[in-house]
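A.,

Following up on our hallway conversation. Structure tokens first:
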């Protein structure tokens, strides 16, 4: 759940780790070529596996792990305890792009991979990341919801849960996953910020706030379909886009929503406008990116 936006803006933070590298692919291609297995492989298969087109690998709570699944004739099915995962690549090397929950504990994590008749468990390590904690003393009135507001919020949370559980085929198989920033402006590094009001911990801030004036057009960062348009208690005017395979993005506090459920957008298409609706301190865009039902740091999807 999204909480009021922090006031401070500074540079975004994003950890990066080396990942399954092109040289590995090159060696594998050479092996396949020398074995005579490459004749029918189109050049586009190379491009589809270009790791520069994928989000950065950052194996921390709220980050993204790019896990190599190796070669296979067909796209493997990967899941994390039953939640299906985004799998990209080609027959040379498939890669699971896994969202790591902000609530994940540092240490070993696992995904399950089904490829043909084979099922295997793949382990990876999540590193610790200390997100900033803010302890605030505020008037109880500002944190305790009235019963009718609480009831409204619970209804809205149940509805949004159904949006988050979507897993659809992407419009374009293996399209690039690097995103365009949806509005120009200063980005906050407040993803993961933990707030404690009067000693009570709140959900951490699960998106990126971008400073922009009311009325600034917001554009689609990737091709996607509008799957929810609503006015919510905390988030105000809100739109969700589905980019396929469990990759969704969310836009909050909007002043205008110039779109309808079912609209299909290309990268760069304007579909709503920045505002200050819902529980906010001023106009800005709250931008959330979700992978396998997990809010992850949007900065990992932007050009570094
Ligand atoms: Zn926010």
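Then the amino acids I'd put at each of the 304 positions:
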């Amino acid at each position: 759940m999204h909480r009021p936006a922090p006031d401070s803006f500074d540079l975004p933070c994003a950890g990066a780790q080396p990942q399954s590298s092109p040289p590995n692919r090159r060696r594998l291609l050479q092996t396949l070529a020398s074995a005579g297995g490459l004749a029918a492989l189109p050049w586009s298969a190379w491009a589809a596996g270009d790791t520069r087109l994928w989000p950065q690998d950052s194996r921390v709570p709220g980050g993204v792990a790019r896990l190599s699944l190796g070669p296979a004739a067909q796209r493997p099915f990967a899941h994390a305890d039953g939640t299906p995962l985004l799998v990209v690549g080609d027959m040379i090397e498939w890669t699971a792009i896994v969202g790591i929950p902000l609530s994940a504990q540092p240490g070993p994590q696992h995904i399950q991979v089904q490829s043909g008749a084979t099922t295997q468990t793949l382990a990876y390590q999540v590193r610790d990341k200390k997100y900033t904690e803010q302890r605030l003393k505020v008037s109880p009135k500002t944190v305790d919801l009235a019963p009718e507001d609480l009831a409204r919020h619970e209804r809205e949370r149940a509805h949004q849960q159904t949006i988050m559980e979507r897993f659809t085929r992407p419009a374009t198989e293996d399209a690039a996953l690097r995103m365009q920033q949806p509005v120009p402006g200063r980005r906050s590094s407040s993803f993961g910020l933990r707030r404690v009001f009067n000693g009570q911990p709140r959900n951490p801030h699960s998106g990126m706030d971008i400073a922009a004036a009311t009325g600034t057009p917001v554009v689609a960062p990737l091709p996607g379909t509008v799957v929810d348009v609503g006015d919510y208690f905390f988030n105000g005017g809100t739109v969700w886009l589905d980019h396929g395979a469990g990759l969704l993005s969310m836009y909050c506090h909007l002043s205008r929503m110039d779109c309808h459920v079912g609209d299909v957008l290309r990268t760069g298409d304007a579909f709503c406008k920045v505002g200050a609706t819902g529980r906010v301190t001023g106009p800005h865009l709250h931008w959330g990116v979700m992978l396998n039902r997990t809010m992850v740091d949007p900065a990992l999807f932007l050009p570094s």
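Residues 1-26, 28-49 have pLDDT under 50 and may be disordered. Curious whether your intuition agrees with the design.

B.
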